[in-house]
């Protein structure tokens, strides 16, 4: 988004990615309407799989609790398709794209930035760190404190081409994300069918039960309850760690760099929604670069204006505060609170789904 916006407005942009596109990306592929709008995409012209979401269920011991809306509140997409489209769009606007180009090290100097990739060194006036949860720009800026400053979530997911008819015939249904609070109430597992695909995964705050054990427990539960046919061969699960936003902890910009998306640790607490914040921060970064304002701290603030604006964009902090609060409670109390939130139709709709997952300010 940053490269596209800057290239469109006449900037000379070089976009590097370690992978070649289209590439797989561990993600459930749930995007909000706001994220789609921010990407300047819409339901009628999007050229790939776009499954409207009008129902979301929460899986409790007594069964699925379904919440419904009269129109699409979100969409299901395949990340390899969406990301490839965004990359191609940036290229078409004039950004130079180099794929299969892993950045090994970044030097942030006072007068320039040096990017080291294999035997090549690339010099520029500014770098935008968009390299995800282990972004080399963020690591160069923050050094050893990089992970210490972030609230980390571990995850594993698998996306398998099953076929629409088989999915319809199974107990999984189609086009409805189903979320299962983890028994430890420190994360959730999910399944989500879209088009021909079944996406299954689990994510939880780091430090608790190991993710592979949670995955195994979840799959056994789905098979035992007859939802997931045991004969289906799922694509291998892939693991990924990323950070969720618990408020401003470290500067997200310096004189010659800006961090966006997972590199800045912006995924929303509770829901793990990271596509929307990545897009919004990408747009904000482009706007700040164009204005030149990110270089100078605001009067009376220790934060640079980019970080300050980003912190505001991240919302009123209710869900981060709730996440931090719940985490400190003893497990039985936490469990009872989470189950109360999910069982009450009103709280489930307003607070859990529309608030935490659909990003509506409360
Ligand atoms: C299992 C899982 C499920 C999720 N589900 C959802 C969901 O349903 N909805 C949602 O909104 N969010 C979801 N998220 C979060 C979301 O995927 C991320 O927040 C989002 O992808 C962040 O985008 P990004 O562009 O910052 O980083 P990424 O999408 O991770 O992109 C980073 C890019 O940088 C490249 N890169 C990395 N290191 C280097 C390097 N050294 N040199 C060059 N290139 C490099 C990578 O190849 C990659 O293309 C999920 C995350 C996980 C792990």
- Number of β-strand runs: 18
Order of helices and strands: HEEHEEEEHEEEEEHEHEEEHEEEHHHHH
Radius of gyration: 21 Å
Count of individual helical segments: 11
The main β sheet shows up as: 7 strands, mixed
Main sheet strand line-up: 5-4-13-14-15-12-16
Q: Are there runs of 5+ residues with pLDDT below 50, and where? A: none
Chemical compounds bound to the protein: flavin-adenine dinucleotide
Summarize model confidence as the mean pLDDT. Answer: 91
Q: How would the global form be characterised?
A: globular
Characterize the quaternary organization of these chains: single chain
Query: CATH top level of the domain at 102-150 and 249-328?
Result: Alpha Beta
CATH topology of the domain at 102-150 and 249-328: FAD/NAD(P)-binding domain
- Taken as a percent bin, the fraction of beta residues is 15-25%
CATH 2nd-level architecture of the domain at 102-150 and 249-328: 3-Layer(bba) Sandwich
Helical percentage: 25-40%
**CATH homologous superfamily name of the domain at 102-150 and 249-328?**
FAD/NAD(P)-binding domain
**End-to-end CA span:** 28 Å
Write a brief caption for the model.
The protein is of the alpha+beta class and 362 residues long.
Q: What is the topology?
A:
Elements: H1 2-8, E1 14-17, E2 30-32, H2 33-38, E3 51-53, E4 55-60, E5 63-68, E6 74-76, H3 79-92, E7 96-99, E8 105-108, E9 113-117, E10 120-124, E11 127-129, H4 136-142, E12 151-161, H5 164-169, E13 178-181, E14 187-194, E15 197-205, H6 211-224, E16 238-244, E17 253-254, E18 257-259, H7 275-291, H8 305-313, H9 318-328, H10 331-343, H11 345-357
Parallel strand pairs: 1-7, 4-13, 11-18
Antiparallel strand pairs: 2-6, 3-6, 4-5, 8-9, 9-10, 12-15, 12-16, 13-14, 14-15, 17-18
The structure holds flavin-adenine dinucleotide.
């Amino acid at each position: 988004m940053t490269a596209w916006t800057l290239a469109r407005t006449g900037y000379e942009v070089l976009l590097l990615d370690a992978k070649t596109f289209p590439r797989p990306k561990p993600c459930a592929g749930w995007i909000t309407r706001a994220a789609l709008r921010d990407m300047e995409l819409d339901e009628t012209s999007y050229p790939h799989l776009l499954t409207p979401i009008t129902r979301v269920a929460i899986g409790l011991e007594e069964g699925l609790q379904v919440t419904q809306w009269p129109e699409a509140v979100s969409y299901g997409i395949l990340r390899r398709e969406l990301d490839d489209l965004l990359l191609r769009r940036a290229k078409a606007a004039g950004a130079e794209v180099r794929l299969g180009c892993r950045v090994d090290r970044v030097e942030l100097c006072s007068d320039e930035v040096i990017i080291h990739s294999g035997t090549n060194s690339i010099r520029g006036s500014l770098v935008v760190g968009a390299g995800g949860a282990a972004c080399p720009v963020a690591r160069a800026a923050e050094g050893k404190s990089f992970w210490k400053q972030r609230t980390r979530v571990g995850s594993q997911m698998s996306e398998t081409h099953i076929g629409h008819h088989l999915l319809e015939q199974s107990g999984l249904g189609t086009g409805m994300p189903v979320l299962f609070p983890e028994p430890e109430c420190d994360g959730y597992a999910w399944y989500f069918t879209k088009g021909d695909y079944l996406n299954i995964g689990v994510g939880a705050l780091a430090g608790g039960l190991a993710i592979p054990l949670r995955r195994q427990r979840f799959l056994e539960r789905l098979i035992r309850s007859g939802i997931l046919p045991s004969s289906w061969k799922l694509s291998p699960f892939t693991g990924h760690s990323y950070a969720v936003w618990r408020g401003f902890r470290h500067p997200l910009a310096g004189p010659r760099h800006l961090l966006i998306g997972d590199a800045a640790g912006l995924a929303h607490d509770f829901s793990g929604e990271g596509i929307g914040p990545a897009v919004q921060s990408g747009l904000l970064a482009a706007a700040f670069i164009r204005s030149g304002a990110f270089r100078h701290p605001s009067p009376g603030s220790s934060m640079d204006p980019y970080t300050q604006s980003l912190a505001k964009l991240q919302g009123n902090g209710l869900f981060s505060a709730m996440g931090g609060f719940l985490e400190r409670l003893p497990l039985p109390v936490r469990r009872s609170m989470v189950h109360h939130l999910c069982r009450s139709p009103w709280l489930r709709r307003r607070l859990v789904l529309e608030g935490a997952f659909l990003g509506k300010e409360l």
